[in-house]
Design a protein that fits this description.
The chain is mainly alpha-helical. The protein has one domain. The protein contains 6 helices and no strands. The longest helix is centred in the N-terminal third of the chain and has 28 residues.
Amino acid sequence: MMTWTAFSFLITGVLLNAGAQLLLKAGTNVLGVITLSAENWPAQVGRMGLEPHIVAGLGCYVVSVIVWIVGLSRVPVSVAYPMLSLGYIVNAIAAHYLLGEEVTLSRWLGIGLIIVGVWLVARG
């Protein structure tokens, strides 16, 4: 059985990871379609590195990895790793409300299956 402390670290890691994805997407919404070539990649990488949403998203990733490692030290990876799937749920809902993305019925059904699967794995 997972302790509340371990669960707290893992869910914090999941939420930070999901937040990173949302921030990165917000950054690409500002920058537009990014095309990398041999000639333009330094300038494009520079643009990405200066975009505040992308910088914040990368920061969330760094913190999420640290928090995840702490959580992983308390729980078997076979229990912890499926919890990353909760990020799909968070991102689908947040992308719908924050970014105006459509979440279709088939996506909601898939998210429902993910919830059931994570619950089964967490029960042990």
